């Protein structure tokens, strides 16, 4: 992965990250079946366009080392930002990474320049599944109970990379290899049993006032597509788009599509900041 490596200590954990470029910070928060490498192509693009790209592996993922101690992912994110001297940033989160970004925004609204949420988790949100999705969830649970990590990884690739209603193996090549490698590392890590439960964000999403780009793939879980629609109605400054023919991890499945939409959003954010500066100076 490109960029300069860094390690931030949070409690007894060593959070491993990468940063690239200079300018306003864009912090990338990975999905729960991936690690920071899911954002490699987005980080290069963002840095080339004059932004400071940052991504790190949360506890239980990638290169991060974490003992089983009490922790909170929001506190860890604060530690990373503090170590890098970042007060405010644009946060780009997929799945659980999106949920973390929303929780951070509710705790620190003044530190969020903008949000990009892809197939996002929301703490305390409801979940439902179609019959086809339930069958895959049963296969996932069976592999988990039998301790068959290889099978579990393959089932989760079907669920999250291909999409639960799509044929198994729909996404192949380098994207599939990367997914299987990232998720295998996460599945092989010791379980962390002492994570602190974060307050439910679901009843409070209307309080998130930062400019927000909501993205979801039309091959993603039905519950996440429904959630996307709810958030687009509830979040006051949200712009929403459904991505055709992709599932839960579009940053590796269709990086050029995600890059173009992300860049358009960042350009709008930057333009807005410049207009505010002009207004404040009286020009």
From TrEMBL:
GO molecular function: hydrolase activity
PANTHER family: AB HYDROLASE SUPERFAMILY PROTEIN YCLE, MONOACYLGLYCEROL LIPASE
AB hydrolase-1 domain location: 26-259
Keyword line: Hydrolase
Record InterPro entries: AB_hydrolase_1 (IPR000073), AB_hydrolase_fold (IPR029058), AB_hydrolase_sf (IPR050266), Epox_hydrolase-like (IPR000639)
Identification of the protein by name: Alpha/beta hydrolase
Protein source organism: Devosia oryziradicis
């Amino acid at each position: 992965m490109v960029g300069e490596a860094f390690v931030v200590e949070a409690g007894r954990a060593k959070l491993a990250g990468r940063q690239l470029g200079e300018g306003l910070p864009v912090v990338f928060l990975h999905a729960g079946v991936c690690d920071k490498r899911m954002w490699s192509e987005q980080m290069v693009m963002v840095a080339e366009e004059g932004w400071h790209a940052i991504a790190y592996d949360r506890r239980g993922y990638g290169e991060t080392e974490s003992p089983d101690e009490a922790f909170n992912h929001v506190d860890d994110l604060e530690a990373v930002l503090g170590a890098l001297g970042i007060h405010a940033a644009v946060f780009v989160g997929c799945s659980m990474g999106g949920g973390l970004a929303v929780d951070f925004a509710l705790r620190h609204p003044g530190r969020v320049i903008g949000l990009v949420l892809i197939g996002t988790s929301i703490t305390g949100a409801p979940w439902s599944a179609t019959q086809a999705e339930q069958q895959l969830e049963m296969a996932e649970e069976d592999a988990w109970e039998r301790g068959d990590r290889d099978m579990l990884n393959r089932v989760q690739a079907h669920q999250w990379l291909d999409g639960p209603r799509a044929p198994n193996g729909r996404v192949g090549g380098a994207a599939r290899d990367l997914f299987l490698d990232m998720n295998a590392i996460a599945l092989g890590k010791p379980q962390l049993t002492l994570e602190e439960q974060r307050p439910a964000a679901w009843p409070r999403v209307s309080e998130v006032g930062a400019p927000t780009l909501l993205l979801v793939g039309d091959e993603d879980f039905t519950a996440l597509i429904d959630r996307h629609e709810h958030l687009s109605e509830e979040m006051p400054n949200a712009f929403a788009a459904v991505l055709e023919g992709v599932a839960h991890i579009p940053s590796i499945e269709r990086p050029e599509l995600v890059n173009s939409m992300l860049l358009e959003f960042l350009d709008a954010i930057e333009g807005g900041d410049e207009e505010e500066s002009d207004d404040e100076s009286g020009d």
